[in-house]
């Protein structure tokens, strides 16, 4: 939560000083108009005390609700409404307490318009300062997030180069190609092509760019084809994405680490065939992608399934949406499920 | 004729080895396996003189598979990239081949093996290699044991304590105990010292299982585990335990 401007000691002192000056001014003015010191002081205390309450209320409201664009009219209305309420309240209170003092009631009625405008100006001023303060804080926070996002994008790029040109994947693929050259040169050539396309896609794509799910799936297909050559019959995939979900967007290169995690987890934790399922649906203006892989609950805890790949996906989504709940995993029986929600850009 | 087994989870990786082996007619491939479980079975049945072994495989790694064998055959590792493993067995393996490798490199590995075979005093190379591999920086998170024909993977959290038993170590768990052909020193070094303490010459105890430590006879203590099991604690063991528990 943003801190109130009064949390800074310097501002608190200025705030209190200003208040004392205004109160002193008012008391002197009232004395000048013929009230005795005691009545003037009491009047000042009551009306300014109530006004102080109104000011603090405005600050509190703005702390939780910062107006944007068109909503400034609401803030204006709020100020006006608060001023009116303040006027009625202080008038009632003053009249009730000081009504017996001779000449006071008349002075009170005559000064109502001045009191109103002074209070309105003051409340408006406080409101403006608060809005400035909170929007500046918000901007700072946003900038920080953006800076973080940029830094992570750079890190991710380096990581991506390490991870996807990842020694294991790369050398094993080269080893498979080496095997194919002897026995099936045509297939070797095809795999060289797939590997090149995949690596080119990895290097070319910009992490901050958004792509449609269909585009991302094409890229994923290259990766899956290579893995299928490596693991032969052990690996198969079932991808079901309806057209309306395929048109939704997601940050580039988000899907591959999720599927890679599922493949590793699935292939190294079970013996025999491993089916990786990927489904996507559009739901409440969100793209929801579900990836499942088999695992053996007897020999591994589902925690092992949330490797670094998923953590980096979670972090990327957090930086984009400031939400930590977009990647969820769940283990049921022999199936490990990874579910990713991607809010759609407006 | 020398029997050879190829163990690798990628079919194409096996086919490379098969192809390169054609140049060595004195070697006969008796079986190919896609994971360590099959590997153990095949090695016991066939008693090969040489195996080609991948490290990262489904369920159990190549290292874990070798641990399950009483008399492991000579091993040539074939692996894509495994820095720590390379460092660990550089000195002792018959050879290791980094994927992808060519016929030349492969032939040299075979030549090396023939050479070693001619000098039987080095036959224990594999056993030595395994002991070194246990010291690799990655600490053990699990222990693979064989119980008859069944292979069991024990997560280290589930271990109550380890007990020396002649040439073996008894691993006590909720499901009873399992035997492992290893030394106490091996486990003392391979397990996380924050969780496993050598409480006695013949015992290593899982600290997280201890509920209390009672005095027992003169100078000695006994650790009572959650399961009710009692583990002897020597004087030095007691001071080690106190240190880990922060007493």
Features:
heterodimer, A: 346 residues, alpha+beta, Heat Shock Protein 90, 2 domains, five-stranded mixed β-sheet, two-stranded antiparallel ribbon, 10 helices, rod-shaped, B: alpha/beta, Rossmann fold, five-stranded antiparallel β-sheet, 15 strands, 34% strand, elongated
Give the secondary structure arrangement, pairings included.
The complex is a heterodimer of chains A (346) and B (247).
Chain A: H1 9-32, H2 37-64, H3 72-98, H4 104-164, H5 167-183, H6 185-204, E1 210-212, H7 213-231, E2 235-240, H8 243-246, E3 249-251, H9 255-269, E4 274-283, E5 286-294, H10 308-321, E6 327-332, E7 335-343
Parallel strand pairs in A: 2-4
Antiparallel strand pairs in A: 1-3, 4-5, 5-7, 6-7
Helix pairs in contact in A: 1-2, 2-3, 2-4, 3-4, 4-10, 5-6, 6-7, 9-10
Chain B: E1 2-7, H1 11-21, E2 27-33, H2 36-46, E3 50-53, H3 62-67, E4 74-79, H4 83-89, E5 95-98, H5 103-118, H6 125-133, E6 142-147, E7 150-155, E8 159-165, E9 168-173, E10 176-180, H7 184-190, E11 196-200, E12 203-206, E13 210-216, E14 220-225, E15 230-233, H8 235-245
Parallel strand pairs in B: 1-2, 1-3, 3-4, 4-5
Antiparallel strand pairs in B: 6-7, 8-9, 8-12, 9-10, 11-12, 13-14, 14-15
Describe the structure.
The complex is a heterodimer of chains A (346) and B (247). By secondary structure, chain A is an alpha+beta fold. Helix content of chain A is 66%, strand content 13%. In chain A, the strands form 2 sheets. Chain A has a 5-stranded mixed β-sheet. In chain A, a hairpin with a 2-residue loop joins β6 and β7 (335-343). Chain A is rod-shaped. The mean pLDDT of chain A is 85. Chain B is an alpha/beta fold and 247 residues long. Chain B has 2 domains: 2-133, 3-Layer(aba) Sandwich (Rossmann fold), CATH 3.40.50.2300; 142-245, LytTr DNA-binding domain (OB fold (Dihydrolipoamide Acetyltransferase, E2P)), CATH 2.40.50.1020. Chain B is 32% helix and 34% strand. A 5-stranded parallel β-sheet of chain B has the order 2-1-3-4-5, sandwiched between helices. Chain B has a 5-stranded antiparallel β-sheet with strand order 10-9-8-12-11. In chain B, strands 13-14-15 form a 3-stranded antiparallel β-sheet. The longest helix of chain B is centred in the middle third of the chain and has 16 residues, at 103-118. At the A-B interface, α5, α7 and α9 of A face α1 of B.
């Amino acid at each position: 939560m943003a801190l109130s401007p009064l949390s800074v000691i310097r501002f608190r002192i200025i705030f209190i000083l200003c208040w004392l000056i205004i109160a002193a001014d008012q008391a002197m003015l009232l004395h000048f108009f013929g009230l005795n010191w005691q009545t003037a002081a009491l009047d000042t205390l009551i009306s300014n005390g109530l006004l102080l309450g109104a000011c603090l209320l405005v600050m509190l409201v703005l702390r939780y609700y910062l107006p944007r664009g068109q909503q400034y009219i609401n803030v204006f209305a709020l100020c006006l409404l608060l001023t009116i309420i303040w006027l009625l309240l202080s008038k009632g209170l003053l009249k009730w307490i000081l009504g017996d003092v001779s000449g006071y009631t008349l002075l009170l009625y005559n000064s109502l318009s001045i009191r109103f405008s002074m209070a309105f100006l003051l409340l408006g001023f406080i409101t403006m300062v608060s809005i400035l303060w909170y929007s500046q804080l918000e901007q700072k926070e946003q900038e920080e997030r953006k800076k973080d996002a940029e830094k992570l994008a750079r890190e991710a790029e380096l990581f991506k180069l390490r991870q996807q040109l990842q020694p294991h994947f790369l050398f094993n693929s080269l080893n498979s190609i080496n095997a194919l050259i002897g026995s099936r040169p045509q297939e070797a050539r095809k795999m060289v092509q797939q590997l090149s396309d995949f690596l080119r896609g990895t290097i070319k794509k910009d992490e901050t760019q958004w792509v449609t799910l269909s585009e991302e799936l094409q890229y994923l297909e290259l990766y899956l084809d290579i893995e299928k050559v490596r693991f032969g019959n052990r690996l198969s995939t079932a991808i079901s994405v309806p057209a309306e979900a395929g048109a939704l967007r997601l940050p580039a290169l988000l899907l591959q680490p999720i599927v890679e995690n599922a493949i590793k987890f699935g292939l190294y934790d079970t013996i025999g065939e491993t089916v990786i399922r990927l489904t996507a649906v559009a739901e409440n203006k969100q793209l929801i992608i579900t990836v499942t892989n088999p695992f053996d609950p007897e020999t591994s805890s589902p925690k092992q399934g949330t490797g670094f790949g998923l953590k980096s996906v979670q972090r990327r989504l957090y930086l984009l949406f400031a939400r930590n709940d977009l990647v969820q995993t769940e283990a049921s029986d022999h199936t490990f499920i990874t579910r990713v929600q991607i809010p759609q850009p407006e | 004729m020398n029997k050879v087994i190829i163990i690798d989870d990628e079919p194409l990786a096996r086919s490379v080895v098969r192809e390169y082996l054609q140049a060595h007619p004195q070697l006969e491939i008796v079986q190919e396996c896609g994971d360590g479980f099959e590997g153990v079975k095949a090695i016991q049945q066939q008693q090969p003189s040489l195996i080609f072994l991948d490290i990262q495989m489904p369920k159990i790694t190549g290292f874990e598979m070798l641990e399950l064998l009483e008399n492991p055959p000579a091993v040539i590792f074939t692996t894509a990239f495994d820095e720590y493993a390379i460092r660990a067995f550089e000195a002792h393996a018959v050879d290791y081949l980094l994927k992808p490798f060519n016929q030349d490199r492969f032939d040299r590995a075979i030549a090396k093996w023939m050479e070693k075979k001619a000098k039987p005093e080095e036959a224990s190379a594999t056993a030595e290699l395994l002991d070194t591999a246990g010291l690799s920086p990655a600490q053990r998170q699990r222990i693979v044991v064989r119980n008859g024909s069944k292979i069991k993977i024990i997560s280290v959290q589930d271990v109550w304590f380890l007990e020396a038993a002649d040439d073996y170590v008894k691993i006590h768990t909720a499901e009873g105990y399992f035997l492992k052909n290893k030394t106490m020193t091996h486990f003392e070094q391979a397990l996380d010292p924050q969780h496993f303490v050598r409480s006695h010459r013949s015992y290593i105890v899982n600290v997280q299982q201890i509920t209390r430590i009672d005095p027992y006879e003169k100078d000695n203590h006994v650790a009572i585990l959650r399961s009710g099991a009692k583990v002897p604690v020597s004087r030095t063991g007691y001071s080690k335990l106190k240190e880990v528990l922060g007493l």
